[in-house]
Amino acid sequence: MAAIPVRDDGESLADVRGRLRVDTRLADADGAYAHLREGLLTRLERAERHLPDGYHLLIVEGYRPVATQRRYFDEYRDELRAAFPDMTEQEAHVAASRYVSPVEVAPHTAGAAVDLTLCDPDGHEYDMGTQVNDNPEESDGACYTAAPHISDDARAHRKLLAAALEPVGLVNYPTEWWHWSYGDRYWALATGAPAACYGPVTM
Q1: pLDDT of 172-186, one tens digit each?
Q2: What are the residue ranges of helices labelled H in the chain?
């Protein structure tokens, strides 16, 4: 992914609040978590309109400043090294990268990725098989989008989420059912686009 060029179109970050439902579990003082590139946000609004009655998107986290992304990665890498002391530094880096993107390629720092789930009109989350941000160790691999050992309800809800997001151009990162993106390097890799249209940005 690091070899994919970025041709940032200069699109601004937009506030999700007031446009879609937003959860505050990962709220930061600056409200960064509730921002996305405008093009991604408008696609999510289109996806929301195509969900069946009784279902809504619930945005958990969007944009992350570079410092936040680096902290997330370093903390998870250090957790892995503590749990698996035989890991080399390089092995820990690769293992951590399955779940948290290294800063160099992280889509959240571009405002191009969103962590989200489904909720009912009262904001109660549907069963998706795991909580948002459960890592592979905590969930015994159930965080993987195609995990085989989740309930029928959870599998149906994941398919419903994909059925709303894929037609508007988003792609899923397969180790995290909740992580979808548009315009970042992973999106370019998955869709065959010649370049990413969103790179790291500041609020």
Answers
A1: 999 999 999 999 999
A2: 38-49, 66-83, 89-97, 136-139, 152-165, 185-191
Structure tokens at 73: 């990665």
Model pTM greater than 0.85? yes
Bridge partners for 7 per DSSP: none
Q: What residues form DSSP beta bridges with 113?
A: 181
Report the candidate in 5, 20, 67 with the shortest Cα–Cα distance to residue 165: 20
Alpha helices in 66-117 (DSSP H): 66-83, 89-97
Contact between residue 142 and residue 149 where contact means Cβ atoms under 8 Å apart: yes
| First CA to last CA distance, the chain | 24
- CA distances to 4, 74, 124, 155, 160 from 150, rounded to whole Å, are 34, 29, 19, 7, 15
Count of CA atoms in the C-beta half-sphere (13 A) of 89: 1
Q: Give the span between the Cα atoms of 36 and 29, in whole angstroms.
A: 16
Instruction: Tell me how far apart the alpha carbons of residues 18 and 86 are, in angstroms, rounded to a whole number.
Output: 48
Chain segment 143-159, per-residue pLDDT in tens: 999 999 999 999 999 99
Are the C-beta atoms of residues 44 and 10 closer than 8 Å to each other? no
